[in-house]
Amino acid sequence: MPDTEILRARAGRAGTRLAVLTLAALLSAGTAAGRDLTFGRGTEHAAIDPHFNDAGNDVSTNQNIYDRLVEMNARQEMTPSLATSWRALDPLRWEVKLRAGVTFHDGSAFGPEDVAFSLDRPNHLVGAAAPWTRSVASVAGVDVVDATTIIVRTKTPKPMLMDEIGNVFMVSKKAATGASTEDFNSGRAAIGTGPYRFVAWQRGDRLELQGYKPHWRGTPEFDRVTLRFIPNTAARIADLMAGAVDVIDGVPPNDVPSLAACKELRVWSGLTNRITFLAIDSGRATTPFATDLAGAPLAKNPLADMRVRRALSKMINRPALVERVAGGQGVPAGQIVPPGQGGYAEDLAPDTLDLAAAKRLLAEAGYPQGFGITIQSSNDRFPEDSAVLQALGQMFTRGGLKLNGVNSMPFNVMIGQAAQQKFSLYLWAYNSGAPDASEGLKSLLATRDVAAGMGGSNRTQYSNPAFDALLAKGLGEFDDTRRNGLFAEATRLAIRDDVGMIPLYWQKHSWGSRAGLRYEANVQDDNAVRFVHIGE
Q1: Smaller CB count within 10 Å for the chain: N or C?
Q2: The model scores a pTM over 0.70
Q3: Within 10 Å of residue 51's Cβ, how many Cβ atoms?
Q4: Distance of CA 285 to the CA centre of its chain
Q5: Whether residues 334 and 451 fall in one domain
């Protein structure tokens, strides 16, 4: 990963889009009042229940309240958290040492029984939006040895066990036993060991947190934290410039120079592992948004044909998408993980634009004149998401398809509809909590088996038994080099050969802050308070 790029103020670079707001910012200059922090985020979490939705928005929120066994730093390197050390005793047993002296927000002691409970709870949570079962599916049981030692038994050899269970948020067995997701959302069961304790959540507006001074890492940098949810980008920027918020996420590429030119502001940017891709409804006999040229539903799903999926990929001009639409804030991609992460396939380059080949493939599949399609995306999850969707629609039209519709919607609406398979072709983004391809391959492309921890975010019913076998072999391999080679081989099969998904680009992300605050631009594209620091 390239070093984090810090964009400082430079004279003469102020842009026209923010010229009016610049004066307001200068008149209201100042940094965060005292030790309080207000973080303006574009997207709200779905729940305070940390096991309800394994998605970036919820993870960013819940890691303020709850701790995990391990933590990833800004470079996505694994560091100890509630677990201080771990080792494999044999292929099916791991010894995990727990941190002593940790307390929950209600003053009770954190212990091994809480870990056992937290690793089992996702298996019983009904109605989860994106279940954490994939992270705990390999656990056969947890044996308590003493107050700071547990033995985790696995169903099969799991060389990457801590990459999986290490990310699961730890809750209080006492507070969470029998608790519903709404009990967490109300705060009754939201008892964690994290640096901030729950105060109040006003849906659609804000989440209020209080620093937990007895936290095992020491007193948090901020006394009170308010997460404000401001989906409108212009409003979020205006609030930053006026001093109404101290930090924001999702600074659009076109606004980066103008914000960086304001002496009271800072912009912090970096490349992330978040992959932007097209999800393809390839696993069903029919699909809801594919039509003939007259608009009548097709009796056969064209997206189930690999030649059609490959044609779609060849219609896309990825460099133009990144440079002209995403403002250069990305790198064209041909696979899930970027260079430098485990399982990256050196020989797997992004598809290049080739409209002639795309039309030949459509004709071979039986659609010489194309077919009708509607595409969907969020409009508030990542910078320029709806603009990227519009650009893709134009590319598909030039490639020979009839575009019936281009629909964007709030992410909290879209995720529910995607889970119900209401789409045929949609724009999505995924960032992994693991520094390798394992999590993305398991979540996005493995045949869906939630109980086994496979396909948790596979909402297209894509399934390839040969891929599943390669992935399983990699997940059971203890040698790092061989394991990453198997992940690369599985990636070639599912993406290059089978086009199970269409990678577009890895995103860059930019955060803005008031002067006097520093934000750690991180590989995970994480909007957590732990990356905000006083001082530059």
Answers
A1: C
A2: yes
A3: 27
A4: 29
A5: yes
